[in-house]
ATP-grasp domain-containing protein
Amino acid sequence: MSSHIRTILITGAGGAAGRSLCRQLRLLRNAHLRIIATDVREVETCADIFLTGPAADSPELIDFLRSVIASYDVDLVLPTVQDELPVVTAAAPELGNRVILSDPVSVDVCHDKLLTALRLEDQGIAVPWTRAGSQTPVDYPLVVKPRVSHGGRGVVVVDTAEELPELDESVIIQGFAGGVEFCPQVYRSPIDDSVTTVMLQKMKLRDGRIGNADSVLRIARSLAPDVAELAEATVVALELYGPVDLDIRRGRDGTPVVLDVNARFGPHSACAPELLRQLLADAALVVPEAPEAPTAAFTTTALQAS
């Protein structure tokens, strides 16, 4: 195995997804990696080098990334901030194609929850009924969520018409799927088009019926094969490559529907470490020895607190 040091840049090091990736890379044995982490504020990190950088919406973001790449001879960039994906993906050629993400059009679709739902519906992929906030609801209960957001921020369940607030085009309304929720972790290789899926089931939602998962459980594909197949069909339908973090939930009749698609590593990627190893191989970096298998359960709150 080569001893050449490879440098990986992780953005959003203070978020759950960034911290998870940093720790996974640090745990890889014989990988010969140097980790550089960035965030808009100073945070504790296990990276070798930490740099404070501009926010996702700053016009200085790409210049900052370009400078870091040149100064530290970065081999691979792993963006984890949802809001920076469109601009980073569009600038990938300027960054020396060191980013393994989907093309800008696909990323832009995933960045807008209304466009995501409409594109999937058009492709025959199961989603809850979805409307713009200014349109008439189909039925109740429903979910109101921002068109552009990440995680469970700004998401509320509305059970009756009397509870429905005044809405505008900045939000969408969507049928509420109240069954078991999953967050499949998918990696589609840009090299050989292979698709790898790791099934995670959400065990506790932070806000009760909705919200981010405080804990997830890695389960066998055979326990929810229809969910795994839906996740893979979604990635292909949206023409996504690289890491993809999905939210899929069963409806009242048990049918799984796609709720959200994030074209990046999510906060639970530590439960699927083989996806990161596959990305490292596709990036032509040293394929490191695998770490120990992850435990079945992974608690997000424990990761955030530690």
